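Exam revision sheet. Question 4 asks you to relate a sequence to its structure. Input first:
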Amino acid sequence: MNKNIIWGILLIVFAGCKGSFTNTSGRTIYVQKENRAHKDWKLVWQDDFESTALDTTKWTRIPPNNADWGNYMTSDPECYAIRDGKLYLRGINNYDTLRDPRPFLTGGIYTKGKFAFQFGKIEIRAKLESAQGAWPAIWMLSEQEKYGAYPRNGEIDILEHLNYDSIIYQTTHSYYTLELKQKKNPSYYTTVKCDVERFNTFGLEWYPDKLVYTLNGKESYTYPKVKGVDASQWPFDQPFYVLIDQQLGGSWVGEVDPKDLPVNMIIDWVKVYQ
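Answer key, structure tokens:
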């Protein structure tokens, strides 16, 4: 289908939600009006992974990077599969170190440069397999870097799981928490008991004055905008994109046990509402 026709359809659909839709060089950014919070949620973006291949109009496979979480990211097809309406992101032993010298390979996807939103609700239904050194995550970063380099634009961690833990972490990062070390005014994270080896719905409701984290539709933790503190406490007034990845290893999660691999992060669907 002609791209202009596709964008025309999207504009019509999103216009009905009374938000602000922008398409810039193939990038979709959807900004919710502030008074929208008092109305019913409307679905504005989703992926049910019903096709036979990753929808590259929505997602990009995350390339390797120098961050702790990105050491083993790859586009290798061994780390990706779609079957029965579910996306499998895999952490595996790398048996071809002549082609790629890294001992492990991991799969991850993000919407960077393709879809971002500001305010609204996001939910991801997923199942997490456990392994020593496994670090699956669902999180968000700023699309436009309004306030400068990381961590000035903040980070929203909807889900992180370590090793064989029976809890998940939900965390809010920013210059305020990481550099100014302001981690109690307000509290910047929580842990929630979770049976990760069944499908759960991990979520976030994002308002102009607070981030409300959820697990299976129930509120688990709220990070509010605070008055009278350094302005870096609230960089969450700009569009963010979505990352989903099956990470391995790092200073927080610890060493990887090759005997525990492969390990899968299984995504049923992703839905964004405003």
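Marking note for examiners. The longest helix spans residues 3-15.
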